[in-house]
Design goal:
Helices cover 36% and strands 0% of the residues. It is built from four helices and no strands.
């Protein structure tokens, strides 16, 4: 059997949003920014999917947890019904 030729797959390198935009900061009070890093079910999206660097991902997790503690963000996603 002849093998098919391999296609070269191009994937764009994900860059950290916070490293690129210096004026953008991670703050637990900024719920609008934090919501983009939380899934519909309320889980924190991992850095390999979002593309943040390790330093900012750690800060992001702490900010999300603080926002949940103060009830700015829910622990779980929206309930259906």
């Amino acid at each position: 059997m002849a093998q098919r030729p391999q296609k070269k797959l191009f994937t764009r390198r994900k860059s950290c949003r916070f490293c690129g935009e210096k004026e953008l900061t991670i703050n637990y009070k900024d719920v609008k920014t934090l919501r983009s890093f939380v899934s519909e079910r309320g889980k924190i999206i991992p850095r390999r999917i979002v593309g943040t660097c390790a330093t900012h991902q750690r800060q992001l997790c702490e900010a999300i947890k603080q926002a949940r503690q103060i009830a700015f963000l829910p622990y779980s996603g929206s309930t259906q019904g």
